[in-house]
Amino acid sequence: MPRPLTATDFLADAPSVAQALIGTTLLVDGIGGLIVETEAYDRSDPASHSHRGQTPRNAIMFGPPGRAYVYLSYGIHWCLNFVCRETGHGAGVLIRSVQPLQGLEIMRRRRGVQDERLLCAGPGRVGQALAIGPAHNGLPLNAPPFAVLAPPADAPVVQIVSGPRIGISKAVDLPWRFGLAGSRYLSRRF
């Protein structure tokens, strides 16, 4: 049986956590799938919401690790991040893409598309398919409605690729975007 991740699984730096999340399972109210793409953000990183310090919007990033940080992007997309490092640091991992495995029909209705590959390929799509919203901000990832599960012990080792993050204008040279090699569910090729 897969092991649920706990707050201690999120104590490492953001790039390490972002890589470790590739191949884990994310479920929200039983709907979701395999995390296949992430991006890391750290307080020292000018592209991070936490770079200029704590504000009401990003306060969750400075809280305990293993919590959801949810924000509205471009006024239309709810994006899901996982807080990491120690309390007070201000680091997180954006969930960019999920390979849908459970609740596909529900995700299709929420997204209004039939193509399985397009259900969760991008952070806004992940948010819509999993019905992420402001009520999820600050919730622990190891309690309902969330379940974040490590791969089963007998799962093959995942091959991870990395490259520059997408849709940012600062620190574009950092190779802090991570993905499952060969996955057809990525938001964009590496």
Question: Can you walk me through this structure?
Answer:
By secondary structure, the chain is α+β, with helices and mostly antiparallel strands. The protein is 12% helix and 28% strand. It has 3 helices and 8 strands. The chain has helices at 14-21, 104-111, 123-129, and strands spanning 25-28, 31-41, 68-73, 77-84, 91-102, 146-149, 160-163, 177-180. Strands 1, 2, 3, 4, 5, 6, 7 and 8 form an 8-stranded antiparallel β-sheet that branches. Strand 3 and strand 4 form a beta hairpin. The chain is globular, with a radius of gyration of 15 Å. The termini are far apart.
Q: What global shape is seen? A: globular
Order of helices and strands: HEEEEEHHEEE
Number of strands: 8
Biggest sheet overview? 8 strands, antiparallel
Distance between the termini: 32 Å
Structural class based on helices, strands and sheet pairing? alpha+beta
Number of helices: 3
- Helical residue percent band: 10-25%
Radius of gyration: 15 Å
Describe the protein's topology.
Elements: H1 14-21, E1 25-28, E2 31-41, E3 68-73, E4 77-84, E5 91-102, H2 104-111, H3 123-129, E6 146-149, E7 160-163, E8 177-180
Antiparallel strand pairs: 1-2, 1-6, 2-5, 2-8, 3-4, 4-5, 7-8
